[in-house]
C-alpha cells in the first residue's frame, strides 16, 4: 500500500483484526529528498508476532558486543525483536478509537512548578498578528491498549485555514515530570510556519498521572514485579499507535511526519523512529546515549540520578550498601529489557538510516556522555554512507553545555525539519 508516489508504509499494529498473533507488514522505507535516496527500492516483508513471548531475552555480553559491532545490523530483524519485547508486557489489544477531550487547565507537574523555557520561546515563528486567535486546537484521547494507561492524551495545534492541502506534521515529546502543555511554545511556533503540531503525555505523566509520585511509583513497581516498562518502552508503544492515527488524518501528509523530544522525550523519539519507519524525520534532543558504554566505563551516575528512587529500591532488594554497576545493569534489564544490550544506541541509531536524523546533545552532558556516542555515531555514518545519504545524518554536541536544551538546539532542530519536511 502506498502513501504517495513511491512511498510505501508498513502497518505495525492491526487494530481491526485481533487474533492470537500480532501481524505486521514491514517495509524498508525512506525519504525521497535526495537523488541518491530516490534510487532506493523498498521491499515488503511480513512477520507474525506471538501474543506471549517464550523464553528469556537474548543476553549480549560486553565481549560479544564488540564482535557484533563489526557485523551488519539487520534493521527489520531488530525491529521485529524490539516489537516482541514491547508486546511482552502489554495488556489486551483493543481497536484504535478516538475520543474528544477538553483542554487541561492545570497540568500536573511532578516536581516543583516549571519556569518558562527560554529555549522553547526562542523557536523561530512566523510574524503573524493575533496568532493565538488564529490557532486551531484539538484535544483528544486515543486508545492504545486496555487499562488506565492505555488512554493516550493528545494535543494538536494548527493554523485555521480553508486550504485542504495536506501538511507536514511533527510530534513533540516532553521531558521527565512534565506534560504535553509544557511544549506549547514549540507547538505554536511550528504551527505558525505551516506544520500540524502534536504533543502527548508520556506514560505516568500529565493526564496519565494521579499524583506527584506516579512516575516514580511506576518505575519501582516495574522493578519489583516486571509488570510494565514505564521507562521509554511503554511510551514507544503509544507512539506506534499514534502513527496509526496520524496517517489516517485527511490534513496530514503521511510521508512527512517528524518526531522530536527533549531528554526523556528525546529517548522516546529515538526509539519510536527506530521501531517505526513512518516517522520520517527524527531529532532527539539531549536524549541519545550509550547505556552499555556508561556501565562499562563507570559513567552511569548522571542518568541513574535522574530516576534514582528505582535504583535505590533495587539496591535494597539486592542487599547492596550503595548503587553500583550490578544494580544499574539489573534495573535496566528489568524495566527496559535490552536497553543496555541489543537495543542500545549502537544498534538502534543506525537502523533509522536513511531517514534524516539530527542528534543534538551537550558536549558536557553527564546523562548522555559524548564519549559514549562514538560507536553509535560511527555505526550511523556507515549506515548512511552505504545508503548514499550521508547528508541525512548529523550529530551536534554544543560546547560547554550539560544536560540542557538550548536556543541553538531549538534553532538547529527547526532548520532540520524545514529542510526535510517542507520539500
TrEMBL record:
Annotated protein name in UniProt: Alpha/beta-Hydrolases superfamily protein
Organism encoding this protein: Quillaja saponaria
Organismal lineage: Eukaryota, Viridiplantae, Streptophyta, Embryophyta, Tracheophyta
PANTHER family on file: ALPHA/BETA-HYDROLASES SUPERFAMILY PROTEIN (PTHR47381), ALPHA_BETA-HYDROLASES SUPERFAMILY PROTEIN (PTHR47381:SF3)
Domain Peptidase S9 prolyl oligopeptidase catalytic per the UniProt entry, residue ranges: 190-405
One Gene Ontology term of the molecular function aspect: serine-type peptidase activity
GO annotation, biological process: proteolysis
Amino acid at each position: 500500500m502506498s502513501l504517495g508516489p513511491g512511498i510505501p508504509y508498513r502497518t505495525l499494529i492491526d487494530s481491526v483484526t485481533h487474533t492470537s498473533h500480532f501481524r505486521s507488514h514491514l517495509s524498508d522505507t525512506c525519504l525521497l529528498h535526495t537523488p541518491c535516496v530516490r534510487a532506493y527500492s523498498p521491499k515488503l516483508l511480513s512477520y507474525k508476532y506471538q501474543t506471549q513471548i517464550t523464553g528469556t531475552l537474548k543476553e549480549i555480553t560486553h565481549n560479544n558486543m564488540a564482535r557484533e559491532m563489526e557485523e551488519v545490523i539487520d534493521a527489520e530483524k531488530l525491529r521485529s525483536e524490539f516489537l516482541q519485547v514491547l508486546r511482552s508486557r502489554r495488556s489486551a489489544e483493543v481497536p484504535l478509537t478516538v475520543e474528544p477531550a477538553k483542554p487541561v487547565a492545570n497540568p500536573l507537574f511532578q516536581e516543583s512548578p516549571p519556569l518558562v523555557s527560554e529555549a522553547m520561546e526562542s523557536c523561530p515563528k512566523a510574524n503573524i498578528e493575533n496568532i493565538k486567535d488564529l490557532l486551531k486546537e484539538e484535544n483528544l484521547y486515543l486508545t492504545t491498549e486496555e487499562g488506565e494507561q492505555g488512554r493516550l492524551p493528545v494535543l494538536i495545534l494548527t493554523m485555521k485555514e480553508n486550504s485542504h492541502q495536506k501538511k507536514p506534521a511533527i510530534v513533540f515529546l516532553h521531558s521527565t515530570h512534565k506534560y504535553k502543555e509544557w511544549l506549547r511554545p514549540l507547538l505554536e511556533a511550528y504551527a505558525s510556519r505551516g506544520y500540524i503540531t502534536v504533543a502527548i503525555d508520556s506514560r505516568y505523566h500529565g493526564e496519565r498521572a494521579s499524583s506527584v509520585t506516579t512516575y516514580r511509583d511506576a518505575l519501582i513497581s516495574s522493578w519489583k514485579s516486571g509488570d510494565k516498562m514505564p521507562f521509554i518502552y511503554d511510551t514507544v508503544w503509544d507512539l506506534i499507535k499514534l502513527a496509526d492515527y496520524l496517517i489516517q488524518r485527511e490534513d496530514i501528509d503521511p510521508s512527512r511526519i517528524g518526531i522530536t523530544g527533549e531528554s526523556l522525550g528525546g529517548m522516546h523519539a529515538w526509539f519510536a523512529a527506530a521501531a517505526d519507519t513512518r516517522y520520517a524525520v527524527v531529532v532527539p534532543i539531549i536524549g541519545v546515549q550509550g547505556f552499555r558504554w556508561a556501565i562499562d566505563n563507570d559513567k552511569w551516575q548522571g542518568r541513574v540520578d535522574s530516576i534514582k528512587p528505582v535504583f535505590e529500591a533495587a539496591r535494597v532488594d539486592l542487599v547492596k550498601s550503595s548503587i553500583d554497576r550490578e544494580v544499574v545493569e539489573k534495573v535496566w534489564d528489568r524495566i527496559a529489557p535490552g536497553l543496555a544490550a541489543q537495543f542500545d544506541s549502537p544498534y538502534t541509531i543506525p537502523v533509522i538510516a536513511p531517514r534524516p536524523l539530527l542528534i543534538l546533545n551537550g558536549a558536557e552532558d553527564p546523562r548522555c556522555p559524548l564519549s559514549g556516542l562514538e560507536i553509535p555515531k560511527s555505526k550511523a555514518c556507515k549506515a548512511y554512507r552505504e545508503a548514499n545519504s550521508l547528508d541525512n545524518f548529523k550529530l551536534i554536541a554544543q560546547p560547554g553545555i550539560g544536560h540542557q536544551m538550548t536556543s541553538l538546539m531549538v534553532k538547529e532542530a527547526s532548520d532540520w525539519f524545514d529542510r526535510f519536511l517542507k520539500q
